[in-house]
Amino acid sequence: MMRGLIALAAAICGAVAFADGGELKAAWFRADITPAVGTKIAGYGPDDVSVGVLDPLYATGLALDDGERKALIVSFDLLGIDAPVIRELRKGVAGILGVPEAYVLFTCTHTHGGPHTRMLNEDVRMKLDYSIDRDPPPGLDVAYMKTFRERLYAAVRRLAAEGTWRAVRLGYFSSQVDANLNRRFTTADNHASFIAHRRTLQRIATGIADKELGTVVLLDPNSLAPLYVIGNYAAHPLASHAPGRGGLRITADFPGFYRLCGGVGCRCHIPLCVQPPAGV
After folding, report:
1. I want to staple 71 with a disulfide (CB 3.0 to 4.6 A). Which of 103, 104, 200, 256 is the partner?
2. 3-state secondary structure 121-153
3. Taking 70 as the threshold, does the pLDDT of residue 214 lie above it?
4. CB 152 within 8 A of CB 31
5. Which of 115, 112, 49, 120 is nearest to 253 (CA)?
6. pLDDT tens digit string along 244-267?
7. 244 torsion bin: left (phi>0), alpha (psi -120 to 50), beta (else)
8. Could you report the per-residue pLDDT of 166-179, keeping only the tens digit for each?
9. In the chain, % of residues over pLDDT 70
Protein backbone atom coordinates (compact mmCIF):
# COMPACT_ATOMS: atom_id res chain seq x y z
CA MET A 1 0.00 0.00 0.00
CA MET A 2 2.80 2.43 0.85
CA ARG A 3 4.36 1.90 -2.57
CA GLY A 4 1.02 2.72 -4.15
CA LEU A 5 0.82 5.97 -2.19
CA ILE A 6 4.38 6.85 -3.20
CA ALA A 7 3.56 6.23 -6.84
CA LEU A 8 0.51 8.48 -6.64
CA ALA A 9 2.55 11.13 -4.85
CA ALA A 10 5.02 11.03 -7.74
CA ALA A 11 2.19 11.72 -10.16
CA ILE A 12 0.92 14.61 -8.08
CA CYS A 13 4.40 16.11 -7.89
CA GLY A 14 4.48 16.41 -11.65
CA ALA A 15 5.91 13.17 -13.08
CA VAL A 16 3.26 13.15 -15.77
CA ALA A 17 3.04 13.13 -19.53
CA PHE A 18 0.85 15.78 -21.12
CA ALA A 19 -1.91 15.38 -23.68
CA ASP A 20 -2.27 18.34 -25.98
CA GLY A 21 -5.56 19.31 -27.58
CA GLY A 22 -8.29 21.91 -27.51
CA GLU A 23 -9.38 23.78 -24.42
CA LEU A 24 -10.82 21.58 -21.73
CA LYS A 25 -12.79 22.84 -18.74
CA ALA A 26 -13.62 20.96 -15.57
CA ALA A 27 -15.78 21.31 -12.48
CA TRP A 28 -16.22 18.88 -9.62
CA PHE A 29 -18.10 18.08 -6.45
CA ARG A 30 -17.93 15.80 -3.45
CA ALA A 31 -21.06 14.73 -1.56
CA ASP A 32 -21.14 12.86 1.72
CA ILE A 33 -23.15 9.64 1.31
CA THR A 34 -22.29 8.07 4.67
CA PRO A 35 -25.19 6.05 6.12
CA ALA A 36 -26.28 6.20 9.75
CA VAL A 37 -24.59 4.00 12.32
CA GLY A 38 -26.70 0.89 12.77
CA THR A 39 -27.03 0.42 9.01
CA LYS A 40 -26.35 -3.12 7.86
CA ILE A 41 -23.11 -3.15 5.92
CA ALA A 42 -22.32 -5.20 2.84
CA GLY A 43 -19.52 -7.19 4.39
CA TYR A 44 -19.70 -10.96 4.25
CA GLY A 45 -23.19 -11.56 5.51
CA PRO A 46 -26.64 -10.01 5.16
CA ASP A 47 -26.92 -9.12 8.84
CA ASP A 48 -23.64 -7.35 9.70
CA VAL A 49 -24.76 -4.24 11.61
CA SER A 50 -22.42 -1.24 11.68
CA VAL A 51 -21.25 -0.05 15.09
CA GLY A 52 -19.43 3.14 14.11
CA VAL A 53 -17.85 5.20 11.34
CA LEU A 54 -14.14 4.81 10.61
CA ASP A 55 -14.21 7.33 7.75
CA PRO A 56 -16.96 8.87 5.59
CA LEU A 57 -18.27 7.59 2.27
CA TYR A 58 -18.36 10.01 -0.66
CA ALA A 59 -19.79 10.47 -4.11
CA THR A 60 -17.06 12.28 -6.03
CA GLY A 61 -18.04 13.82 -9.35
CA LEU A 62 -15.95 15.26 -12.18
CA ALA A 63 -17.58 17.13 -15.06
CA LEU A 64 -15.65 17.84 -18.26
CA ASP A 65 -16.52 20.21 -21.11
CA ASP A 66 -14.50 20.41 -24.36
CA GLY A 67 -16.67 23.13 -25.85
CA GLU A 68 -18.80 20.67 -27.81
CA ARG A 69 -19.73 18.00 -25.30
CA LYS A 70 -20.17 17.86 -21.56
CA ALA A 71 -19.74 14.65 -19.57
CA LEU A 72 -19.78 13.58 -15.93
CA ILE A 73 -18.08 10.70 -14.14
CA VAL A 74 -19.04 9.93 -10.54
CA SER A 75 -17.18 7.59 -8.20
CA PHE A 76 -19.21 6.13 -5.31
CA ASP A 77 -17.78 4.65 -2.13
CA LEU A 78 -20.22 1.74 -2.41
CA LEU A 79 -20.06 -2.00 -3.01
CA GLY A 80 -21.92 -1.69 -6.30
CA ILE A 81 -25.27 -0.72 -7.83
CA ASP A 82 -27.60 -2.94 -9.84
CA ALA A 83 -28.05 -2.14 -13.52
CA PRO A 84 -31.72 -1.00 -13.28
CA VAL A 85 -30.83 1.54 -10.60
CA ILE A 86 -27.82 2.72 -12.58
CA ARG A 87 -30.13 3.42 -15.51
CA GLU A 88 -32.54 5.27 -13.21
CA LEU A 89 -29.81 7.43 -11.68
CA ARG A 90 -28.11 8.15 -15.00
CA LYS A 91 -31.39 9.37 -16.43
CA GLY A 92 -31.97 11.64 -13.44
CA VAL A 93 -28.44 13.06 -13.46
CA ALA A 94 -28.45 13.56 -17.23
CA GLY A 95 -31.72 15.45 -16.97
CA ILE A 96 -30.30 17.80 -14.35
CA LEU A 97 -27.17 18.53 -16.38
CA GLY A 98 -28.94 18.62 -19.74
CA VAL A 99 -26.65 16.04 -21.34
CA PRO A 100 -27.29 12.65 -23.02
CA GLU A 101 -27.41 9.71 -20.64
CA ALA A 102 -24.45 8.18 -22.49
CA TYR A 103 -22.31 11.05 -21.17
CA VAL A 104 -22.93 10.12 -17.53
CA LEU A 105 -20.63 7.44 -16.13
CA PHE A 106 -20.71 5.79 -12.71
CA THR A 107 -18.13 3.67 -10.92
CA CYS A 108 -18.04 2.11 -7.44
CA THR A 109 -14.96 1.49 -5.34
CA HIS A 110 -16.49 -1.79 -4.09
CA THR A 111 -15.94 -1.11 -0.41
CA HIS A 112 -17.46 -3.74 1.86
CA GLY A 113 -17.80 -1.11 4.59
CA GLY A 114 -20.89 0.51 3.12
CA PRO A 115 -24.62 -0.27 2.96
CA HIS A 116 -26.40 -2.90 0.89
CA THR A 117 -26.86 -1.13 -2.43
CA ARG A 118 -27.19 -4.17 -4.68
CA MET A 119 -28.38 -7.77 -4.61
CA LEU A 120 -25.75 -10.22 -3.39
CA ASN A 121 -26.98 -13.12 -5.53
CA GLU A 122 -25.41 -12.50 -8.93
CA ASP A 123 -27.66 -14.90 -10.83
CA VAL A 124 -30.76 -13.14 -9.49
CA ARG A 125 -29.20 -9.69 -9.83
CA MET A 126 -28.63 -10.05 -13.57
CA LYS A 127 -32.33 -10.82 -14.16
CA LEU A 128 -33.89 -8.09 -12.03
CA ASP A 129 -35.78 -5.11 -13.39
CA TYR A 130 -36.75 -2.70 -10.64
CA SER A 131 -36.32 0.85 -9.44
CA ILE A 132 -35.66 2.30 -6.01
CA ASP A 133 -39.38 3.09 -5.71
CA ARG A 134 -40.79 0.09 -7.61
CA ASP A 135 -40.47 -3.55 -6.56
CA PRO A 136 -37.09 -3.32 -4.83
CA PRO A 137 -35.71 -6.80 -4.07
CA PRO A 138 -35.25 -8.20 -0.56
CA GLY A 139 -31.93 -7.31 0.99
CA LEU A 140 -31.63 -3.91 -0.68
CA ASP A 141 -31.42 -1.02 1.80
CA VAL A 142 -34.26 0.95 0.24
CA ALA A 143 -34.27 3.71 2.87
CA TYR A 144 -30.58 4.35 2.27
CA MET A 145 -30.96 4.21 -1.51
CA LYS A 146 -33.60 6.94 -1.37
CA THR A 147 -31.36 9.13 0.78
CA PHE A 148 -28.39 8.38 -1.48
CA ARG A 149 -30.38 9.39 -4.56
CA GLU A 150 -31.43 12.66 -2.94
CA ARG A 151 -27.85 13.52 -1.99
CA LEU A 152 -26.55 12.67 -5.45
CA TYR A 153 -29.18 14.73 -7.24
CA ALA A 154 -28.66 17.65 -4.85
CA ALA A 155 -24.91 17.61 -5.52
CA VAL A 156 -25.44 17.54 -9.29
CA ARG A 157 -27.94 20.42 -9.05
CA ARG A 158 -25.36 22.49 -7.14
CA LEU A 159 -22.78 21.65 -9.79
CA ALA A 160 -25.14 22.71 -12.58
CA ALA A 161 -26.16 25.94 -10.84
CA GLU A 162 -23.03 26.98 -8.96
CA GLY A 163 -20.14 24.89 -10.26
CA THR A 164 -16.88 26.70 -10.87
CA TRP A 165 -15.54 25.69 -14.27
CA ARG A 166 -11.79 25.93 -14.70
CA ALA A 167 -9.58 25.57 -17.73
CA VAL A 168 -7.36 22.52 -17.22
CA ARG A 169 -4.53 20.70 -18.90
CA LEU A 170 -4.60 16.93 -19.02
CA GLY A 171 -1.72 14.73 -17.88
CA TYR A 172 -1.29 11.05 -17.19
CA PHE A 173 1.07 8.79 -15.30
CA SER A 174 1.56 5.04 -15.15
CA SER A 175 3.62 2.92 -12.80
CA GLN A 176 3.88 -0.70 -11.75
CA VAL A 177 3.01 -1.21 -8.09
CA ASP A 178 3.41 -4.65 -6.53
CA ALA A 179 0.80 -4.21 -3.79
CA ASN A 180 -1.89 -6.64 -4.97
CA LEU A 181 -2.20 -10.30 -5.86
CA ASN A 182 -4.62 -12.67 -7.48
CA ARG A 183 -6.48 -14.70 -4.90
CA ARG A 184 -6.27 -17.94 -6.86
CA PHE A 185 -3.59 -20.61 -6.80
CA THR A 186 -3.26 -22.77 -9.91
CA THR A 187 -2.34 -26.38 -9.16
CA ALA A 188 -0.17 -28.65 -11.29
CA ASP A 189 -3.25 -30.23 -12.87
CA ASN A 190 -4.45 -26.77 -13.96
CA HIS A 191 -7.17 -26.31 -11.35
CA ALA A 192 -7.64 -22.98 -9.58
CA SER A 193 -8.02 -22.80 -5.80
CA PHE A 194 -9.62 -19.75 -4.19
CA ILE A 195 -7.34 -18.81 -1.29
CA ALA A 196 -8.95 -15.67 0.08
CA HIS A 197 -9.45 -17.31 3.44
CA ARG A 198 -6.19 -19.26 3.43
CA ARG A 199 -3.66 -16.51 3.99
CA THR A 200 -0.77 -18.94 4.41
CA LEU A 201 -1.05 -19.74 0.71
CA GLN A 202 -1.16 -16.16 -0.53
CA ARG A 203 2.61 -16.00 -1.03
CA ILE A 204 2.38 -18.67 -3.71
CA ALA A 205 -0.65 -17.26 -5.52
CA THR A 206 -0.05 -17.69 -9.23
CA GLY A 207 -3.01 -15.94 -10.87
CA ILE A 208 -2.56 -12.99 -13.20
CA ALA A 209 -2.74 -9.61 -11.45
CA ASP A 210 -2.80 -6.14 -12.99
CA LYS A 211 -0.02 -4.19 -11.27
CA GLU A 212 -0.55 -0.89 -13.08
CA LEU A 213 -1.38 2.19 -11.06
CA GLY A 214 -2.92 4.47 -13.66
CA THR A 215 -3.31 8.14 -12.89
CA VAL A 216 -4.95 10.97 -14.82
CA VAL A 217 -4.15 14.47 -13.57
CA LEU A 218 -5.96 17.71 -14.35
CA LEU A 219 -3.55 20.61 -13.95
CA ASP A 220 -3.71 24.36 -13.93
CA PRO A 221 -2.65 25.30 -17.49
CA ASN A 222 -0.34 28.07 -16.27
CA SER A 223 1.28 26.81 -13.08
CA LEU A 224 0.81 23.07 -13.79
CA ALA A 225 -0.35 22.69 -10.20
CA PRO A 226 -2.52 19.57 -9.80
CA LEU A 227 -6.21 20.36 -9.45
CA TYR A 228 -7.85 16.96 -9.74
CA VAL A 229 -6.57 13.40 -9.82
CA ILE A 230 -8.20 10.16 -10.93
CA GLY A 231 -6.46 6.96 -9.88
CA ASN A 232 -7.10 3.39 -10.97
CA TYR A 233 -5.68 0.30 -9.30
CA ALA A 234 -6.97 -3.28 -9.32
CA ALA A 235 -7.39 -4.33 -5.72
CA HIS A 236 -10.22 -5.58 -3.54
CA PRO A 237 -10.97 -3.11 -0.68
CA LEU A 238 -10.64 -5.50 2.25
CA ALA A 239 -8.08 -3.66 4.37
CA SER A 240 -10.66 -2.85 7.02
CA HIS A 241 -12.17 -6.34 7.17
CA ALA A 242 -11.16 -7.66 10.57
CA PRO A 243 -12.61 -9.97 13.24
CA GLY A 244 -14.81 -8.45 15.92
CA ARG A 245 -16.26 -4.96 16.13
CA GLY A 246 -13.38 -3.43 14.18
CA GLY A 247 -14.71 -4.99 10.99
CA LEU A 248 -18.19 -3.57 11.55
CA ARG A 249 -17.35 0.08 11.00
CA ILE A 250 -18.57 2.10 8.05
CA THR A 251 -15.57 2.89 5.88
CA ALA A 252 -14.47 3.62 2.33
CA ASP A 253 -11.59 1.23 3.08
CA PHE A 254 -8.23 1.86 1.44
CA PRO A 255 -9.69 3.95 -1.44
CA GLY A 256 -10.75 6.54 1.14
CA PHE A 257 -7.35 6.67 2.80
CA TYR A 258 -5.63 6.60 -0.58
CA ARG A 259 -7.64 9.64 -1.56
CA LEU A 260 -6.79 11.36 1.71
CA CYS A 261 -3.06 10.63 1.55
CA GLY A 262 -2.84 11.57 -2.11
CA GLY A 263 -4.25 15.00 -1.34
CA VAL A 264 -1.67 15.85 1.31
CA GLY A 265 0.19 19.00 0.30
CA CYS A 266 -2.11 19.97 -2.56
CA ARG A 267 -5.74 20.92 -3.05
CA CYS A 268 -6.64 17.81 -4.99
CA HIS A 269 -9.90 15.91 -5.14
CA ILE A 270 -9.02 12.28 -5.70
CA PRO A 271 -11.63 9.69 -6.61
CA LEU A 272 -10.15 6.23 -6.83
CA CYS A 273 -11.72 3.95 -9.40
CA VAL A 274 -11.03 0.45 -8.11
CA GLN A 275 -11.47 -2.70 -10.16
CA PRO A 276 -12.08 -5.35 -7.50
CA PRO A 277 -11.89 -8.75 -9.23
CA ALA A 278 -8.11 -9.02 -9.48
CA GLY A 279 -6.81 -8.57 -5.95
CA VAL A 280 -7.28 -8.91 -2.23
Report:
1. 103
2. CHHHHCCCCCCCCCCCCCCCCHHHHHHHHHHHH
3. yes
4. yes
5. 112
6. 788 899 999 988 887 776 554 444
7. left
8. 999 998 888 898 88
9. 80
